[in-house]
Amino acid sequence: MDLLSWLLIAGGVCYESCYPPARKGEYSVRIISFSHPIPRFLLLLLLLALSDTGCSNKTEKPKTKAPAPVTVARVTQKDVPVELRAIGNVEPYATVALKSRVAGMITGVQFKEGDDVAKGALLFTVDPRPFQASLAQAQANLARDLASANNAREQAKRYASLWQEGIVTREQYDQLQATADSLAASVASLRAAVDNAKLQLEYCFIRSPMAGRTGGLTTHPGNLVKENDTALVSINQIVPLYVTFALPEKDLATIKGRIGGKLPVEARVAGSAVAERGTVTFLDNGVDPATGTIKVKATFANARKALWPGQFVNVAITLDTRKGATVVPTRAVQTGQQGEFVYLVKPDATAEVRPVTTGPSLDGMTVIEKGLAPGDTVVTDGQVKLVPGGKVAVKGGAPA
């Protein structure tokens, strides 16, 4: 209890407080009645204490609210591409797992892991000596039977003349002719055996079937390999390559109508400022009923080898370009109960709520279909402190 209250009670004064106080730190009271006479010295103290107090209806003047600090930007016009965006996966244009077509020992590996190899480049050598011997044997057999076949053919010719002259019988001629035909067939068989031996010998030298990049080795010189067994190395063709992605089925009609016109596509690796450019080359023959999407494949030249098989990339298909579209930073657009709106900074440095109709967004900019004009100033940061008609203080961005 403060001193004034104590004195009033001690003097038998009935009182009530009046709020709010006239000035900060003071009390205002109204004396209602006295229960008994007040001593003069006590009344004097009361008068002195109450000389600066009293019930007052005066209130403090409302404080002027400080302008809200905001960042602003100008409404501009620019050409905005209309795009479809998706996440794609990079795939090699072709991939091959090389296997040996003959059994034997690896005697040479003519490349290093991760090398770029040309089509036809020698990669592995299987010991060729057993196959060289088989080829030599087949060639010798062919030469033997070829000589016999030539002799039999000549004898058959001579007996044909003798048979016509009646010197030999028809049976003797037929027997020699059959022998010549049999040897001719044997020669043809041995020619095929020689060709097969050459082919087996050629299989000892394993070459790259395409230009590409080699992966990790699974075998080394001295290892034995079997025919058509474990892959020796995998080769991916990465120039060119594919990027596969999925689009919603609602965009199917748009893609179908333009796929024949080399629909342009951009692929960008996360964190890269440079986009690779390609074209849509494949549209799947059905929509996935589980996801409601359709598979699309684009081909990229990949001359800089910026894309790598297995990567995930951001894909953008450019459908059209809107010339001179009105745009604002996307962060300026707010969403309320009545729809989308922006805070417009008026020439008198006050904020106005302006409903807008938005279009597509791209790279942090949003197209404004209706509600703003080029040159308007909108708030891009600090909207939470704004009220319609409130003052603003521009702290950054375009001058208001």
Automatic annotation (TrEMBL):
It is found in: Cell membrane. Residues 95-232 form the Multidrug resistance protein MdtA-like barrel-sandwich hybrid domain. Residues 135-203 form the Multidrug resistance protein MdtA-like alpha-helical hairpin domain. Keywords: Cell inner membrane, Cell membrane, Coiled coil, Membrane, Transport. Pfam families: Beta-barrel_RND, BSH_RND, HH_MFP_RND, RND-MFP_C. The keyword DNA damage does not apply. Residues 325-382 form the Multidrug resistance protein MdtA-like C-terminal permuted SH3 domain. InterPro entries: MdtA-like_b-barrel, MdtA-like_BSH, MdtA-like_C, MdtA-like_HH, RND_pump_MFP. Residues 240-321 form the Multidrug resistance protein MdtA-like beta-barrel domain. Residues 135-193 form a coiled coil. PANTHER family: BLL3903 PROTEIN (PTHR30469:SF36), MULTIDRUG RESISTANCE PROTEIN MDTA (PTHR30469). Belongs to the membrane fusion protein (MFP) (TC 8.A.1) family. This is Efflux RND transporter periplasmic adaptor subunit. It comes from Geomonas oryzisoli. The lineage of its organism: Bacteria, Pseudomonadati, Thermodesulfobacteriota, Desulfuromonadia, Geobacterales.
